[in-house]
Design brief:
15-stranded mixed β-sheet; 6-stranded parallel β-sheet; alpha/beta
């Protein structure tokens, strides 16, 4: 486009100028079309009036002309015959006095007729025709040849349609053609006028005018949705325009998502804070929570200087769990740099976490569990992170050095990946940790003494790794510990420490398939809250401590595949909530105590509590009395 064009703006890209030029052409074409239509309507109206009002005059003029010609005799016309052009007929002209009188009467009658009389004559003619047709069949009225041709055409059409349908039905079921989507409503004039102000407002956060104007980008789709489809019909001056635009860009990049029945989906004509999975709060509340950091956060924006307009209702939590969000993690999440909680668990995300996403400095919760992600090299940028879940992905190798910056972590889930290396070289200084799940990886090293400094630790799951050594004595300081699991670690052994009885909040102990030796500590009887104890497949020996009978909340007791000896303690009959008892493949002998058998019998019409009671072949299960209180497994 030349710079001399009155619509050319050198400050805008070429596609923008071309769009303005096309708009002007379309407007000119519409204006010309309206002018032509108006002219046609005027012509038709004028013609109808002239034709209707001059019919009587025309008839009179015709009569005069015929009379004049009848009196002429200049040698060019015969008085016996007139031209069909002048007389209106091609028959001979009768100049007898009677004929002349008859013609004069008809002309006078015609000249005196008005429009209504003419209409009456036409109606009479139609009635006469109806009488003639009455009683006649279609065979009397239609030409036989024409009727035969029509029948043949109908037969050809029927055959042409029937044969393809028959062939389709023989090969595969008939599939009705897809009903096309209804056309989208045309934009109103007012929304068309809002397009460019909104465009100018959004281009600085959308990667520039070229990206925003490219119809192949998610940014352009979000722009057109904002202008033409969004029921909110936001203007360029709205405080939450940027926030709404960013959310729709994310949707178009990684959607469509699985809808949640009964919830307001993204794109609904309400404020975006009402959409499914979005939680907002007033910006004033966020300012109080961040203890003064809000000013820096909102003034500086993202690290690269891009800053969106901060709305009055600000998004602080995005929960998109199990929505089939797919592809790579959209970097547009980073434009919501005030976000505090991001949950993308159990989706179909792949690849590395994009670098801009690490700029969510305000993030406190990040759940990426159960995806296909592969790289977290810069994770340490989340310095305020408190809850992190990376489980069930495709991560491998040692934790990145930047991980050391996450000193505020309270919950860390890394299980079911292929991480390796000495993880506690990093985690030993994370004194605020409450929950650790690093099971099913390839971590090495020992459980460090520094674990005793994790005074808030409630759960530790470290099984199925390559740890070695013993349980550190310092673990006794973790008085809030409720769950402890180190199973599937054949290089961890020694004796089960007696201090375990001091951790009175313990509810779950799973240390099977390790290398523990010696006796089972009697102090375990102090764990009144214990519901699950599994020490299967170790090298434990000696008698089963009778103190286990004090664990009245216990539901599972697994002591199998050890070297326990002696009798089954009758005190186990006190375990009134016991559901599963595993004592097989041990050196236990004697008769199963009646107290334990009582847990297998129905009482007062209720089902027995003890569902499974497996013992070795040297323990008698009292089958003679038909109680069947245990099952021998040899």
């Amino acid at each position: 486009m030349s710079s001399g064009d009155s619509f050319y703006d050198p400050s805008k890209p070429d596609w923008w100028n071309e769009a303005r030029r096309n708009e002007r052409r379309k407007a000119d074409a519409d204006r010309h079309s309206r002018i032509r239509e108006d002219n046609e309507r005027r012509k038709m109206a004028a013609g109808n009036v002239a034709n209707y009002s001059s019919r009587g005059i025309t008839a009179t003029a015709t009569g005069v002309r015929v009379g004049a010609l009848a009196e002429r005799d200049d040698g060019r016309y015969s008085r016996k015959q007139l031209s069909g052009m002048e007389a209106g007929v091609g028959a001979y002209y009768d100049d007898s006095k009677e004929a002349m009188d008859e013609r004069k009467k008809k002309l006078e009658k015609f000249n005196n007729m008005d429009v209504m009389d003419m209409q009456d004559d036409r109606l009479k003619t139609k009635a006469n025709l109806d009488e003639e047709l009455e009683g006649k069949s279609i065979w009397d009225l239609v030409d036989r040849g024409t009727l035969m041709v029509g029948c043949c055409l109908i037969l050809v059409v029927i055959v042409a349609v029937t044969i393809p349908v028959t062939l389709i039905s023989e090969d595969q079921p008939y599939i009705a053609p897809k009903i096309p989507d209804p056309p989208s409503p045309s934009p109103t004039v007012s929304r068309q006028q809002d397009y460019w102000p909104i465009f100018d407002n959004l281009q600085r956060i959308a990667g520039g005018a070229d990206v925003l104007g490219d119809p192949n980008t998610a940014q352009n789709r979000a722009l057109n949705w904002i202008v033409y489809e969004d029921g909110m019909e936001l203007g360029a001056e709205k405080d939450h325009l940027h926030q709404r635009f960013v959310l729709m860009v994310i949707y178009y990049i990684s959607g469509p998502w699985t809808p949640v029945q009964g919830r307001l989906e993204w794109g609904s004509p309400v404020h975006e804070c009402e959409w499914e999975g979005i939680t907002c709060k007033p910006v004033e509340d966020l300012e109080q929570e961040l203890n003064g950091r809000i000013e820096e956060l909102l003034e500086v924006g993202r690290e690269d200087g891009i800053k969106i307009d901060v709305p009055r209702r600000i998004i602080n939590k995005l929960e998109l769990r199990q929505r089939l969000v797919s592809g790579e993690v959209p970097e547009e999440f980073s434009l919501l740099y005030y976000l505090q909680h991001l949950d993308l668990e159990n989706n179909k995300l792949i690849g590395a976490i994009p670098t801009p996403l690490y700029k969510l400095f305000n993030l406190q919760t990040l759940f990426l569990e159960q995806n296909g992600l592969t790289n977290i090299d810069s994770l340490g940028e989340y310095r305020h992170l408190e809850y992190l879940s990376l489980s069930k992905n495709a991560f491998q190798g040692p934790l990145p050095e930047s991980f050391r910056n996450l000193k505020k972590l309270k919950t860390l889930y890394l299980h079911t990946n292929r991480f390796n290396g000495e993880v506690f070289d990093i985690l030993k200084d994370f004194t605020l940790l409450e929950k650790i799940d690093i099971a099913f990886n390839e971590f090495t090293g020992t459980l460090p003494a520094e674990m005793g400094d994790m005074k808030n630790l409630t759960s530790f799951f470290g099984g199925h790794n390559m740890f070695n050594g013993e349980i550190p004595a310092e673990l006794a300081k973790c008085r809030n510990l409720k769950q402890f699991q180190i199973d599937g670690s054949p290089d961890i052994g020694g004796e089960i420490p007696d201090f375990i009885g001091q951790l009175t909040k313990l509810e779950f102990i799973k240390i099977d398939t390790c290398a523990f030796k010696g006796r089972l500590p009697r102090s375990i009887g102090n764990l009144a809250e214990l519901t699950f104890l599994d020490v299967n497949s170790n090298e434990l020996s000696g008698a089963i401590p009778t103190t286990l009978g004090k664990l009245t909340k216990l539901k599972t007791l697994a002591l199998a595949n050890n070297d326990f000896e002696g009798n089954v303690p009758s005190e186990l009959g006190n375990l009134v909530n016991l559901e599963k008892l595993y004592l097989q493949n041990t050196d236990l002998t004697g008769i199963m105590p009646e107290e334990v058998c009582g847990l297998r019998r129905e009482s007062n019409g209720t089902l027995p509590v003890l569902e499974v009671a497996n013992v070795g072949c040297d323990v008698e299960c009292d089958r003679e009395r038909g109680t069947g209180c245990c099952t021998n497994q040899c």
